């Protein structure tokens, strides 16, 4: 016997909003959160813009000492997790019947605490090894988003981090889905988090020639456009509350959607470049559909990985066309046009975008894109403005360096 798995809450911090309402308002309006980099002077990197979190509501859940005990990527994850639990109406302090041993967390991060790695590396070089901070390791290692969330909410069950680059957030949600589906947990916090906008992060991606040098924030991240020139680095966190249907119904939860499928593959082709024919990504999408028992024609919306890079989008467009053919009902957009590419957090943030698209029956616009690349013309990119659309099922794609492909399939909740 397996369990059905539902979503009962989510929390978000992102370049386009730190609350669900703000995030959706900007998503619906196609309003970008990409702007001139303000976290540091990026002049020497040659990169001008990024998708930075703005006005992070630190005081909502944290005190001053938390900044010394958690890197920003962990703060983002804890914030999003606590907001998710609040939306789900899970009161951990006052519910004596809540089973913490069947409550877990799987949160992905591509890099972990990169700013503190940069800071402490500089300290080592200039002041010597004795001056490296005692908390350097627990501040920086990528699993500590999960660790800090579990510590904050007493999640004593299944607990780990997915570190699969830009697929990490989606892999984390898929893994948590399977833990509940197969009976190892009742409730899971799952998603992704990242805070890598610093000198070292921007310089590293820039020198890999992965980032755009475009200076206009509205034309910097333009997925599937013929003039795209690289991705825009983003940050933030998106965390979902997943529950078994039985557990959610027993406590009278407000169910938002159901997770019905998950696919995960590896291209095994190249460190950074995806398979040119998109076959690895296509297999991941097909696996998600197969687990859900869906036909390609059942899908109304695809939240594409769409990084605004040539290699990624040619392969992804081919993959989508391989699985879905010329079905005009399958609308596609990449919300990275608005948020930038949040690396390990992307899958969590974009799962929420996909969920909200289902809730509002609205496919967000692929903002900024004006003329499609000839390699992407066979798929139905949402151009100009978002579209009201019948979305009973949707998928969210995430693909990462190392050949990682991850796809989740969501279903509209209709009270069954």
UniProtKB/TrEMBL annotation:
InterPro entries named among the record's database cross-references: 3-oxoacyl-ACP_synth-2, Beta-ketoacyl_synthase, Ketoacyl_synth_C, Ketoacyl_synth_N, PKS_Beta-ketoAc_synthase_dom, Thiolase-like
Keyword Cell membrane: no
Record's protein name: 3-oxoacyl-[acyl-carrier-protein] synthase 2
Pathway membership, UniProt: Lipid metabolism; fatty acid biosynthesis
Chemical reaction(s) catalysed: (9Z)-hexadecenoyl-[ACP] + malonyl-[ACP] + H(+) = 3-oxo-(11Z)-octadecenoyl-[ACP] + holo-[ACP] + CO2; a fatty acyl-[ACP] + malonyl-[ACP] + H(+) = a 3-oxoacyl-[ACP] + holo-[ACP] + CO2
Task of the protein: Involved in the type II fatty acid elongation cycle. Catalyzes the elongation of a wide range of acyl-ACP by the addition of two carbons from malonyl-ACP to an acyl acceptor. Can efficiently catalyze the conversion of palmitoleoyl-ACP (cis-hexadec-9-enoyl-ACP) to cis-vaccenoyl-ACP (cis-octadec-11-enoyl-ACP), an essential step in the thermal regulation of fatty acid composition.
Family, as annotated: Belongs to the thiolase-like superfamily. Beta-ketoacyl-ACP synthases family.
SMART domains named in the record: PKS_KS (SM00825)
A Pfam family assignment: ketoacyl-synt
Enzyme class: transferase
Ranges for domain Ketosynthase family 3 (KS3): 2-412
Keywords of the record: Acyltransferase, Fatty acid biosynthesis, Fatty acid metabolism, Lipid biosynthesis, Lipid metabolism, Transferase
Active-site annotation: 166 (for beta-ketoacyl synthase activity)
GO cellular component: cytosol
Transmembrane regions: none
Assigned EC number: 2.3.1.179
GO biological process entries: fatty acid biosynthetic process
Single annotated GO MF: 3-oxoacyl-[acyl-carrier-protein] synthase activity
Source organism superkingdom: Bacteria
